[in-house]
Amino acid sequence: MDHAAAPAVTLTLPQLGWIPALPLLAFTLLLFFGRRLGRFSPWVAVAALAGALGITLSLAGTVFHGHRVAVSWAWLSADAPVWSIGLSVDGLSWLMLFVVTSIGTMIALYSMGYMHGDPRLSRFFAYLSLFCASMLLLVLADHFLLLYVGWELVGLCSYLLISFWFEKPEAAAAGRKAFITTRIGDTGLLLGILLLFWTAHELHFSQLDAVRAHLSPGLLTLISVLIFLGAAGKSAQIPLHVWLPDAMEGPTPVSALIHAATMVAAGVYLVARTLPLFTPESLQIVLTIGLLTHLFAGTVALTQTDIKRILAYSTLSQLGLMMVALGLGAAPLAMFHLGTHAFFKALLFLGAGSVIHAAHAQELGQLGGLRKTMPWTAALFFIAAVSMSGLFPLSGFWSKDAILLAARHDHPWLLWVLLGGAAMTTAYIFRVYLRCFEGTAKDHHGATPHAHESPMIMVLPMAMLGLGAIGAGLAGSPWLHHPLFRLLGETHVHEGVDVPILAWSTVAAALGLGLAWVVGVQQRYLLPPALRPLGSQLYRLAANKYYVDELYDRFLIRPFLDLARGLAGFDQRVIDGAVNGAGRVGWGLGELKAWFDQAVVDQLVNGLARTVRGAGATLRWIQTGIVQQYLFVVVMAVVVLSALLRR
Amino acid sequence: MPVQSLLLLSHALFCLGIYGILTRRHAIGLLLSIELILNAAALNFVLFSRAFGHVQAQAFALFIIALAACEAVVGLAIIIRLSRTAKTVFADHVDLLKG
Amino acid sequence: MALTALLACPLVGMLLILALPKTAVKAIRSVALLATGAALLGSLQLLAFFQPGRTQVQFQEKLSWIPQLNIFYTVGVDGISLPMVLLTALLSFLACIASTSITERQKEYYALYLLLEVGMLGTFLALDLFLFYVFWEVVLVPMYLMIGIWGGGRREYSAFKFFVYTLAGSLAMLLAILALYLRTRSFDMVHLAAMGHTLDLGFQQLLFVAFFLGFAIKVPVFPFHTWLPDAHVDAPTPGSVLLAGVLLKMGGYGFFRIAYPIFPEGAQWFGGTMALLGMINIVYGAFVAMAQTDFKRLVAYSSVSHMGFVLLGLAGLTAEGWNGAMFQMFSHGVITGAMFLLVGVLYDRAHTRNLEEFGGLGVRVPVYAAFLIFFSLASLGLPGLSGFVAEFLALIGAYGRWTWQTTVSVLGVVVAAAYMLKVIRQVLLGPLNTRWAALPDMTGREVISLAPLLLVVLALGVYPLLLLQIQDTALQQVIAHVLGQPWQR
Q1: How many CB atoms lie within 10 A of CB A277?
Q2: Which residue, A441, C261, C362, C409, could crosslink C428 as a Cys pair with Cβ 3.0–4.6 Å?
Q3: Pairwise CB contact (< 8 Å): B95 & A635
Q4: From C163, which residue of chain A is nearest by alpha-carbon distance?
Q5: In 3-state terms, what secondary structure has residue A455?
Q6: CA A617: distance to chain centroid?
């Protein structure tokens, strides 16, 4: 990884905006005119995605020459440069662009067959287009904030698409779980952005090297761990992995596109993009989490029986592997694996979708012998499985072996752990393949008798992805002189095929294949009888996904809901109670005052009135109303006065 | 005739009037008593005019006679109204101002 | 005369309505619509002629009112008040469209409604403390009557609580205004702000707290918030819209316009408490909202949570924080207004607001579902919509000064997602509750009342400079003033 060598020339290219804008346009069209477009609505989405793919390909020449293509504009502030956001393409993002647009186009085509006859067909393609637009925005962003925008929007689309069949309560719950779990991780990303802004006052990706030079290692570690928290949420790393298996409630093309190939890889992309901020300490954390996830998910995948769930755990495991590569500081290797993984995992999901579409069953116990009725699907699934197992010379081999090489270079012990993981990978994926497509057809649930090969519209995109699963890895092979690594800026790559690694990984794959056959299909016990109780306990542990969901429910979700309820009660009783209490005190004071008025103040006034009235009553006998009496008084007074005043 | 005795006469006339006004119950009687008082006053004016030689005083006596006529008219009118509304002409029957 | 004309629109409308006979409901409604529409057009006209870069108050009018006490009729707008005026005019017009649910005593209703609009507009336009106080109180009475007469549930209780509580707050404010007058012999806000730094610290602290009480109850700030859920729940739909959309903003506006510029040192002294209360508002409001089962109550508590961002941004005392706080006032007004309209739409049909009684309506009422999902997402702060810009700016603005408070506040964002998705799930998703199998979708009128809000939320989320460039100059100037640079108006 050497970012300093990347941008030689920066071109300004407004057409860049069209890459996310085309799917967005498709979304708008489908949202408002979807019902009128009817059966034609899928073509709108396909056309938009193909257009985006075309633009991406047209940029290839510029990008491969080491140029950056960028366009920017002011967003949150008219004058502060830190708030001007923009789009840019360099090798890293071009790779993601290519993955998203090419796989997106294939999956949109496939969905035409898969979703055929669904009453909300146009809505599905609208969401799919919106997802692609947001994902492309995320990838093209040259600014943390814009990336965050895309980041949340893909989360939204994931939510909408997981809950697409929202009449099913499980689907509704799964979508919500996915959104909230990833959002917990996103708060980490948000806090990382806040911290970065306040310490470095810079949020552009192109300036991260300068930022690294400015900040203290402790601060960098904190920022990078926070960013990794966001990546872990999106890429479903332990401990935020719980949403991804549940997300399989969504339609299978969605699982293939969002929950295998693109969105969940965004976490890997984010770490690769911000790698300059990561210190050795934080890389250690990335490595540990990635490794834990890789192994944990691998063991769970061995024990599951639902084919989509097995693939989901397999995705977790592979994402963990990419995180391991990032933890080793080898971002190009992680991105390489991301690219190959996108092809073979999307193909695996589409194959599973094809099976589900044909057999209307997704439990291993209900499937079997499908190779006879679905030869194309079986063959393509096989290719993808081989590719994922890392067998020479398919795509998975090149990317996985590059990671193994890097691991051997840094920590020799890690190589053996990863080889164990590779064996597990082969074991679980061939367990699926063997039990679905080989063996005898099952009568249970009337599954296989009805099964038939999927229509052309589904097989063709699968075949295209199959080509990718076979050949995409060649881009990073020494045969073609590593064009991919030149694109990503990696300078010190291994020249030629490393034979010991090739041998070891083949052995691991063969071991896994053998295990899959003996334990997965023949159901034979390999453990000596003394160890069987322990083995079955471990099996139960893994089959129940290590009880993580139950633990979360018990120790996080329920306390959370209790806290919410408790606070609501507190609000109602204590705070509102205090207000009402204050009101009542006021009321009581009023009553007291009223009583005082009546008992004291009124009594005073009334008393005065009574006194006056009493005096009046006693004096009223004087007032006889007889004029002569008055006159008599007057006369007498005059007489008396004149007598008194006599001189 | 000496002034002294004439003064006594007018004084007696005035006292008769006062007595009448305090004791008569009939409204006409009250009116007559008031005439007596007025005449006592008029007699005094004439008396002092003669004693001190002032002619103006006699004019006042004439005024008083005119005034008495007016007073009689108004008084009688009041009495007629009274007899119509209160159905009585006795002074002690009319005590509307009694408290 | 532009501002007086703006104020006159609803006032003339009110007088006209009072002159109309009680039975001419149609005429009354059209007059009200015309008056609020004219006010909206007037405010848009202001926007068109407003010069964002200028630091002075624009469209100012000053008439002597009570010369003996140095009281003037002074109105004017700047970057702080213009967004609020626009918000008021917009919501008043849309809530007037949505007032069809009022079926009795329409004449009184519309007259009071227009009086309310006069009060709200006046509060945001006034530049004289006395005039401000008068308008502030004018708002109280129509709202009280609106809740008390046209409300539901425990409407007398709620109306009374609302009235007494806010009156108690404004009493503290009145005392502070009088104290300020006795010290300075002036009611002129601009003049007072210019001499803010000359007031001694103790006096500033005391008066800031007094103004804080008045504004905090309106905002509302924890622990003064409990009138809000009651008042919102029992108010009729247009009342809730204006209550949440505009009345709460009067409190926040007071901080920007009065408390911070006039008492700069007092404000800085109070900053820690402000940030802490902002944090409590955000997190506490969100948690309490999570536990609600009544739709309207949930939205009401979400308002408490969202207004916390205004406090937090204010406390940050940075350009980003203040822009975020101001943006949040506008954006929250629009979003919550729309949410209450949506609750009203549902309540008019189902006659219940209990979230647990719904389910699966997404199939039955797709247009309603689209609106509800859109505004719920806006409310939980989805990027690309206006709420995100506001929250992000407020958080980033406050982070430098109040790091741990901001960090805890970010939690509120997660909880917001939890309760908003809970609403969507309980109302729209899951199997259709057969009780609502015949529920009709939104009518054209309802769509018309909501579509402009949707457009505003989207436009501001995609291109926030639309609003930011109006308010930025004025806000930067006030911050510079608060932090000690001389006043330049």
Answers
A1: 25
A2: C362
A3: no
A4: A583
A5: coil
A6: 95
pLDDT digits 0-9 by tens, A268-285: 999 999 988 899 999 999
pLDDT the model gives residue C118: 94
Inter-chain touch C468–A149, beta carbons under 8 Å: no
Amino acid A450: pLDDT = 60
CB contact under 8 A, A631 and B21: yes
CB neighbour list of residue A582: distance below 8 Å, 6 or more residues apart: none
The SS3 call for residue A249 is helix
The confidence score (pLDDT) of residue C301 equals: 92
A329: which 2 tokens? Answer: 């500081």
Question: What percentage of chain C reaches a pLDDT higher than 70?
Answer: 99
- Enumerate residues 6+ apart whose C-beta is below 8 A from C193: C261, C262, C481, C487, C489
Model ipTM value: 0.91
Please give the pLDDT value at position A1: 34
Contact A89, A97 (CB under 8 A): yes
Distance CA A602, CA C27 (A): 52
Q: Residues A185-207, buried b or exposed e (16+ Cβ, 10 A)?
A: bbbbbbbbbbbbbbbbebbbbbb
Q: How confident is the model at residue A447 (pLDDT cuts 50, 70, 90)?
A: very low
The distance of A602 to chain B (nearest Cα, Å) reads 28
**In DSSP terms, which residues pair with C354 in a beta bridge?**
C294
Encode chain C in three state secondary structure: CHHHHHHHHHHHHHHHHHHCCCCCHHHHHHHHHHHHHHHHHHHHHHHHHCCCCCCCCEEEEEEEEEHHHCEEEEEEECCCHHHHHHHHHHHHHHHHHHHHHCCCCHHHHHHHHHHHHHHHHHHHHECEHHHHHHHHHHHHHHHHHHHHHHCCCCHHHHHHHHHHHHHHHHHHHHHHHHHHHHHHCCCEHHHHHHCHHHCCHHHHHHHHHHHHHHHHHHCCCCCCCCHHHHHHHHCCHHHHHHHHHHHHHHHHHHHHHHHHHHCHHHHHHHHHHHHHHHHHHHHHHHHHHHCCCEHHHHHHHHHHHHHHHHHHHHHHCCHHHHHHHHHHHHHHHHHHHHHHHHHHHHHHHHCCCEHHHCCCHHHHCHHHHHHHHHHHHHHCCCCCCHHHHHHHHHHHHHHCCCHHHHHHHHHHHHHHHHHHHHHHHHHCCCCCCHHHCCCCCCCHHHHHHHHHHHHHHHHHHHCCHHHHHHHHHHHHHHHHHHCCCCCCC
Which residues in chain A touch residue C465, judged by CB atoms under 8 angstroms apart? 74-78
Tokens of residue A165, six digits? 């069949």
Mean pLDDT of A114-129: 88
Residue in A152, A166, A195 closest to C382 by CB = A152
**Angle, alpha carbons A226-A230-A236 (nearest 5°):** 130
- Residue B99 in contact with partner chain A when CB distance is under 8 A: yes
- At residue C312, the pLDDT reads 93
Residue with tokens 């012999």: C185
Compute the distance between CA of residue A494 and CA of residue A6 in angstroms, rounded to an integer: 20
What domains lie within chain B, and their CATH numbers? Answer: 3-85 (1.10.287.3510)
DSSP three-state, residue A440 = coil
Q: Cα dist. A635→B23, B26, C225 in Å?
A: 13, 20, 83
Half-sphere exposure of residue C216: CA atoms within 13 angstroms, side-chain side: 18
User: Chain A residue with minimal CA distance to B24?
Assistant: A628
Question: What's the rounded Cα separation, in Å, for the pair B8 and A647?
Answer: 21
Terminal CA-to-CA distance of chain C, rounded, Å?
A: 21
Terminal-residue alpha carbon distance, chain A: 139
pLDDT interval class at C337 (50, 70, 90):
very high
- The model's pLDDT over C251-282, given as tens digits with 9 standing for 90+, comes to 999 999 999 999 999 999 999 999 999 999 99
